[in-house]
Design brief:
The chain has about 110 residues and is mainly β. The protein has no helices and eleven strands. The model has no long low-confidence stretch (mean pLDDT about 95).
Length: about 110
């Protein structure tokens, strides 16, 4: 079983930056693919980005050019650097390890105009 612990959320003004972290604990071999999702109030949870063990990344169109997904395999941690934040990025951000069927508890990101 894998436990995912997110950190780094907060409140920023539009145009600002935040860096989210997600650390995996437990049986980590299944974390070779890690993803970020987000859920805004009244909306469904949506995919933001994923990264595999080799560093190959995928991004939602809304994240391309502004967000960067990275990982440190020695620390079983993934990072989501979010730049040029917009009010529409306001959501709870969740870390996900799909092969482990695990979700983090979520971290709130609030972007004010």
């Amino acid at each position: 079983q894998v436990q995912l612990v997110e950190s780094g959320g907060g409140s920023v003004q539009a145009g600002g930056s935040l860096r989210l972290s997600c650390a995996a604990f437990g049986y980590t071999p299944c974390t070779y693919v890690m993803s970020w999702f987000r859920q805004a109030p009244g909306k469904e949870r949506e995919f933001v980005s994923s990264i595999d063990d080799y560093g190959a990344t995928r991004y939602a169109d809304s994240a391309k050019g502004r967000f960067t997904n990275a990982r440190d395999n020695t620390k079983n941690t993934v990072f989501l650097q979010m730049n040029s934040l917009k009010p529409e990025d306001t959501a709870i951000y969740y870390c996900n390890a799909p092969r482990c069927d695990s979700w983090g508890q979520g971290t709130q990101v609030t972007v004010s105009s």
